[in-house]
Amino acid sequence: MKKIAFCFLLASCMATPTSASWTLDGSNSTLSFISTKAINVAEVHSFGALAGSVNDAGEVEITIDLTSVDTGIEIRDDRMQEMLFDTASFSSAVITTSVDVGLLSELAMGESSAASVGGELALHGHTVPLTFDVLITRTSESGLLVVSKQPVVISAAQFGLAEGVDSLREIAGLPSISVAVPVSFVLSFNAD
């Protein structure tokens, strides 16, 4: 009987990775944002290159390559890189936050947990605190999926980007482009 109990305990331990660190799978992750122009024309855009990790202490860092902006129109991508993000000087944005590593390791396969986490977004030389409401799901023995439960609204003005938005508006001949931008994400992590 003791032998059976020991085998059960050993199998349970093997089912959950002992590592508390995770690496972002950029090919299966996405960060998208919505721009609104001419008052009521909304378009969805994304960034194609994301990298990141969660360390043993639960510290999270996600790097967004701003040169990978994808609006579906090449000249608009170029203009956003040059006139809005100024990627020659600020090639990336960085999100930092922290999570409870105990929560991550306790999730059973297929189980989800909602969390509200505070963090910061460093963009264009400015760092602004943000709150992210997320749903964390254990997708496999070594996989996690973190999804925004609702969009995070980013104000371009908070990051010194309002002038760039206005430059884009002028060059495109538009009456308006909103400086409030809803951002959503789906982040896939693999245990190290």
Structural summary, described in words:
With 192 residues, the protein is an alpha+beta fold. The protein has one domain: Lipocalin, CATH 2.40.128. The protein is 22% helix and 46% strand. It is built from 4 helices and 12 strands. It has helices at residues 2-15, 74-85, 101-106, 162-172, and strands at residues 22-24, 30-37, 41-47, 50-54, 59-65, 69-70, 92-98, 112-123, 126-140, 143-148, 152-155, 180-191. Strands 1-4-5-7-8-9-10-12 form an 8-stranded antiparallel β-barrel. Helix 2 runs antiparallel to helix 4. It is elongated. The model is unreliable at 1-19 (pLDDT under 50).
- Rg to the nearest angstrom? 20 Å
The helix fraction, in percent, is 10-25%
The residue ranges in which pLDDT falls below 50 over 5 or more consecutive positions are 1-19
- The biggest beta sheet, please? 8 strands, antiparallel, barrel
CATH architecture: Beta Barrel
> Pairing-aware structural class of the strands and helices?
alpha+beta
Beta-strand share of residues: over 45%
- How many DSSP-defined strands? 12
| Total tally of structural domains | 1
Shape: elongated
Q: Report the total helices.
A: 4
Q: Biggest sheet: strands side by side, in what order? A: 1-4-5-7-8-9-10-12
Average pLDDT metric:
90
CATH class membership? Mainly Beta
Q: Tell me the distance between the termini.
A: 35 Å
CATH H-level superfamily: Lipid/polyisoprenoid-binding, YceI-like
Helix-strand sequence: HEEEEEEHEHEEEEHE
Assign the CATH topology.
Answer: Lipocalin
